[in-house]
Design brief:
about 325 residues, mainly alpha, MetI-like fold, 2 domains, two-stranded antiparallel sheet, two-stranded antiparallel ribbon, 4 strands, about 5% strand, disordered N terminus
Length: about 325
């Protein structure tokens, strides 16, 4: 495609903002199909759960002394309707106790706030590293191997260190809180896919397009804004979704590791201790974590809708 044709296509897309924001019928159909497939997937998981509970052995499936499928007792696998009913009951028998679903929603909201902050930190660090590596080839050779190597360090090993370092920090009247340690730990997982995906996207424009802007005496910043950032969107959006999922996982794991109360991770640990006496209750925070992940992915999907004019086809993260 010639430069003139490319420029004409860009001008046609930007001339009418209303037309650019209109969703074509085939996109609406595809979106509806994906929603239906998601609902069917959840339904299929529920059917598979109840089917295995009905036909599976009480002690699970054991092969060569190793249990490869779980037990089907009511303690290990409660019925789905028992879990649903338990959500509508108080957490404890104490007077004024919240309903289980309310307590789970509060914990999920707390964790969602921490995960959102960790996502912002991770995305900011990942984009900064990607810009640095794209700008300087030496930086890419020096930094990228360490970025990859960083993901081999177990998250649970970092949690006590970050908490210990953070407890020694204070800026005036502001002291370091445990939730800040959780946000930093979770951002450690979130920055990696953004750094790699953004770097691929920033390097994706053809050399002829970069040479064209250079022939117009465009600066590096102008080339970045007008060419490289728009071209990186198909690579960046999958990376942002993966970063959102990593932020949620990192938040839950970090809450468990450092013992932060009020979040969904700590609730999973506390309710698991009483699983033998109240099996359906222990599954409530697990469902809360699932909803938390779906909300994080949905938020990034909304961002993708705002940038759909640049989405000519997404690349896997």
């Amino acid at each position: 495609m010639s430069e003139h044709t490319t420029a004409t296509a860009v001008a046609e897309r930007t001339a009418d903002p209303a037309a650019a924001l209109t969703t074509p019928p085939h996109e609406r159909t595809g979106r509806t199909r994906r929603v239906l497939m998601g609902v069917l997937g959840v339904f299929a998981v529920g059917v598979a759960w109840e089917a295995y509970k009905f036909i599976g052995p009480d002690d699970g499936v054991v092969v060569a002394g190793v249990r490869i499928l779980p037990r089907t007792t009511d303690i290990a696998m409660p019925h789905l309707w028992d879990m649903a009913v338990r959500l509508t009951e108080p957490v404890t028998r104490a007077e004024g106790a919240d309903l289980l679903w309310v307590a789970t929603a509060k914990a999920a909201a707390f964790s969602l706030g921490v995960a959102a902050l960790s996502w912002v930190i991770g995305v900011s660090v990942g984009l900064a590293l990607a810009l640095l590596m794209q700008r300087l080839r030496t930086a890419e050779s020096a930094v990228l191997p360490w970025v990859v190597l960083s993901q081999t360090v177990p998250l649970i090993a970092l949690a006590p260190l970050v908490r210990n370092w953070g407890s020694r920090l204070s800026v005036g009247p502001i002291s370091w809180e445990n939730w800040m340690s959780v946000a930093v730990i979770a951002s450690y997982l979130a920055f990696f896919p953004v750094a790699v995906g953004a770097l691929r996207g920033l390097k994706s424009p053809d050399a002829i397009h970069a040479d064209l802007l250079r022939s117009y005496a465009a600066s590096w910043w102008q080339t970045l804004i007008r060419l490289r950032l728009p071209a990186s969107v198909p690579y960046l959006l999958p990376a942002l979704r993966l970063a959102a999922a990593n932020a949620v996982i990192g938040t839950v794991v970090a809450e468990v590791s450092i013992g932060l109360r009020g979040g969904i991770g700590r609730m999973i640990l506390e309710f698991a201790q009483s699983a033998a006496g109240d099996p359906p209750k222990s599954w409530a925070p697990i469902f809360g974590a699932i909803v938390l992940g779906l909300l994080a992915a949905g938020a990034v999907a909304l961002l993708g809708l705002a940038l759909r004019r640049y989405r000519r086809g997404e690349e896997p993260a």
